[in-house]
Write a structure and sequence with these properties.
Elements (H helix, E strand, L loop, with lengths): L4 H7 L6 E4 L17 H13 L2 E5 L6 H16 L5 H13 L3 H18 L22 H8 L2 H17 L3 H32 L4
Parallel strand pairs: 1-2
Amino acid sequence: MNLQENYINAWKGKVGGMTGFTYWFNTQCPMGVNLHMTPHEATDRIRYLNRQGFVALSVDPDGTWGLEGPVYYMMGQLFGDPAADPDELIEEYCNGVYGRASTAMKRFFALLHERLTAILPIAPEDILADARNTKVPRNIDTATMYLRMYPPDVLTQLESLIKEAESIAHTEQNRGWIRLSQDYFDFLNLLTRMMRIHRKWQNNPSE
């Protein structure tokens, strides 16, 4: 069911449990193939839904596991134990998936989360995260979003962290998971740099 409050109130107390769907991670919305939610934003919403009687949540369509794998894992665990510590769950995921490269990858994801909340914050009461999907501020289109989230120094830091992780990883499985994040980062990196060059040309077509 829809996660809007009027839908929840209409069914609350009438069924043994509810399931819902959300567009938090919808790559067809203005956020595109990008980061969509931070661990603590997702935690607040999962706990809210648990209090309302939800037992499951569909997060389709699409998904960007290379950028949001830790958050997906954390959400699944929180539905089983809403009181679990989200930071510990992220640590558990990164240790299990990245092995010795866990610290570098945690820093990689932390920087992504920091940039998202700095550029496109969402209010705690915005359960649907509409401010990042259907009600993005008028002055922020997809190109502007990427350019603000990923200035050159941030792209350099992200690239450095993922290269550090690649150099530390000690199993092929660990390296495979890092490559998945590398693929998504390469997309963000190339797209943002291309848009920056295009904006520069728009401002001075004669160059």
